[in-house]
Amino acid sequence: MSKTNSIQKKPPYGMIFILFIGAFVAILNETLLNVALPSIMVEFDVNATAVQWLSTGYMLINGILIPASAFFIQRFSDRKLFITAMSLFTVGTFLASIAPVFGVLLVARMVQASGSAIMMPLLMNVMLTAFPVEKRGAAMGTFGLVMITAPAIGPTLSGWLIENYSWRMLFDIVLPIAVLTLVLSIFKLKDVTARRAIKLDIFSLILSSIGFGGLLYGFSSAGDKGWDNLYVYSTIIVGALALITFILRQLRMEDPMLEFRIYKYPMFALSSAISIVIAVALFSAMILMPIYVQTIRGISPMDSGLLMLPGAIVMGVMSPITGKLFDKYGAKTLALIGLTITVVTSYYFSKISMETAYSSLVLLYTFRMFGMSMVMMPVITNGLNQLPAKEYPHGTAMNNTLQQISGAIGSALLITVMNKRTETSAEDLAADLMANMDPSAAQATPEATAEMQQQILNQAMLDGINFTFLISTLIAGVALILAFFIKRVKTNNEEKKKDEEAIVGTLQNATE
To answer: How far apart are CA 108 and CA 90, in angstroms?
Structure first.
């Protein structure tokens, strides 16, 4: 039996399990704090703009460091890189738990983010290296448990904790898990991926930070501040110019910080396009559903989180199953079925009303998540399979960066669409009411007038949400059309053997 065959039968499962735990708590922590922001505002006496930086700052650090993760993964050993990242995350979590003032809490979130930004690309890169192409679907499907389930259960878990405990409990429950993962990594982790003696181009890092950071900040602020705000459009313009300069510089470099030439591989390029579109469609439900159930229907935050929990569970259960189906049937069949379900359920969401039953919302949302569980990981894995092994760090960094950017852009665009439609609908409803109003109704009490205005606002907001879901349906439809062009990647045997032999030594060390 050849060495490469023995590798394929003995991936470093212990190491991957440790990486899984680290990545899970890091991603969970990203969405865990959103529900707690009002409580933090009260305790530290800060306004909404300031407290929002706990989420925005976390996202910006991710946007700056994830593009650089390709360099870190190639330059430093897996063990040292993960221990450093987990140490930063653990220190940040501890500081957040004991933060006496808001400034310390903000710094703690930044430190957390600097650690978590490296974990996902590192885990994905190890998975690609450790498993052969024909077994990658099942492995990456299990990886989907981390990428999909953690952010999905975050709002539900945090809603329950905030109702029963202090917001500090959000960090207290993460801290022991982070410490345990750090200790395990110190004693158990070994290296899987090969290192390269490359140098970091400082100017590229600066351009990347300004480019990706500017776009993330600009688009994430647009939904709240409006597109005509100076900070919004100026940061978007500066970010776009810096990003263009960054891309041109990378294309001229022999050893770039982030390799954009991987887009010459058609299936990777297609997978990136589909995953960007899907990220926007996914965010539509995550943004719009809480607004609908809490603001319009008056359902509690806890019940709002519980509404989404079955969908999160279904996605978690389906991820490994989808991975095995990917190994057997490929990405195209799964993507077409999943995107068809996503399009249909998105359309039905555009028809919800004031009377739609809670149980109907749960079923519809769960079925939508079932459809999306069949798309993201198979499509991404199929694209990454086409890359040579030495380009895996760049592929994983690119995918994670684009998901951050597309999430911010998608959120901003969908919120803008909803707000504009709500304003227009409110004006039309008010005009219709005035035109058809009984003269005696003009003498209504202030309480009756306020109630009438609230009903108009709720109906207008519902119309805005319905229209935005219709736009989301069209967006998902674009992804469905793109899915018809997916082809199953079959790695050339000679190239595969060459790639496997390049990692045989390090992988055998990791499994000892």
So the answer is: 10
457: Cβ contacts below 8 Å, ≥ 6 apart: 426
Of 222, 256, 290, the position where a domain reaches its end is 256
Answer yes or no: are the C-beta atoms of 327 and 136 closer than 8 Å.
Answer: yes
- Closest of 499, 266, 252 to residue 386, by C-alpha: 266
* Residue 303: half-sphere exposure toward Cβ, Cα within 13 Å: 11
Q: What is the reported pLDDT for 340? A: 95
Q: What is the mean pLDDT of residues 372-393?
A: 86
Quick one: 89 exposed, middle or buried, by C-beta within 10 A (0-12, 13-18, 19+)? Answer: buried
Shared-domain flag, residues 19 and 129: yes
Domain encompassing residue 65? 11-200+257-429+453-511
**pTM exceeding the 0.70 threshold for the entire prediction:** yes
**Given CA atoms 29, 30, 35, 39 in this order, what sign does their dihedral have?**
positive
- The CATH number of the domain holding residue 23 is 1.20.1250.20
Burial degree of 298 (CB within 10 A; 0-12, 13-18, 19+)? exposed
**Per-residue pLDDT tens over the stretch 270-279:** 999 998 888 8
Q: Which amino acid is it at 242?
A: A
